[in-house]
């Protein structure tokens, strides 16, 4: 009887853990979408593609945004987005991964207008 009870409790715990991980991944996708939307809407003079790179370290983030338009790349493109909001989103995304034991050091988000957003995490 005890063995059966333990197996059932363990089974429920596994299901709950899977639910929590699925909800966390779903939240991470939403945060990644918010990061994309903030950057995409904040590039003032248009773009054909962009590449956003961010490295998260203890106490700071280092970010680079490269915008390409008409075959030319710019690292100093004019932007109009709240950097504090972007930083908060990046740190929240990083914290969520760390909680699951998947702490990445940096990620790169790329987008070509009309295509799919691609995000690569570096561990």
Question: What is this structure, in a nutshell?
Answer:
By secondary structure, this protein is of the alpha+beta class. It has helices at residues 2-42, 83-99; strands at 49-57, 60-69, 72-74, 106-112, 118-122. The chain starts with a helix and ends with a strand.
H-E string: HEEEHEE
Largest sheet, spatial ordering of strands: 3-2-1-4-5
CATH first level: which class? Alpha Beta
Largest sheet: 5 strands, antiparallel
How far apart the termini lie comes to 45 Å
Number of strands: 5
Number of alpha- plus pi-helical segments? 2
* CATH hierarchy: architecture: 2-Layer Sandwich
Q: Hey, roughly how much beta strand do the residues contain?
A: 25-35%
**Rg result:** 19 Å
What is the total number of structural domains? 1
CATH superfamily label: BH3703-like domains
Average pLDDT: 84
| CATH third-level topology | Murine Class I Major Histocompatibility Complex, H2-DB, Chain A, domain 1
Low-confidence stretches: 1-20
Give an account of the 3D structure.
- The protein has 123 residues and is an alpha+beta fold.
- Helix content is 47%, strand content 28%.
- The chain has 2 helices and 5 strands.
- The protein has a 5-stranded antiparallel β-sheet with strand order 3-2-1-4-5, with helices on one face.
- Helix 1 (2-42) runs antiparallel to helix 2.
- The termini are far apart.
């Amino acid at each position: 009887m005890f063995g059966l009870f333990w197996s059932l409790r363990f089974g429920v715990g596994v299901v709950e853990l899977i639910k929590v991980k699925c909800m966390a991944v779903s939240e991470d996708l939403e945060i990644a979408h918010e990061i994309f939307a903030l950057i995409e809407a904040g590039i003032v003079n248009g773009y054909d593609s962009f590449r956003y790179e961010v490295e998260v370290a203890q106490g700071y983030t280092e970010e680079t945004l490269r915008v390409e338009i008409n075959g030319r790349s710019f690292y100093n493109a004019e932007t109009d987005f709240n950097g504090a909001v972007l930083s908060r989103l990046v740190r929240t995304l990083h914290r969520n991964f760390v909680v699951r034991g998947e702490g990445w050091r940096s990620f790169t988000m790329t987008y070509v207008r009309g295509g799919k957003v691609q995000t690569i995490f570096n561990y």
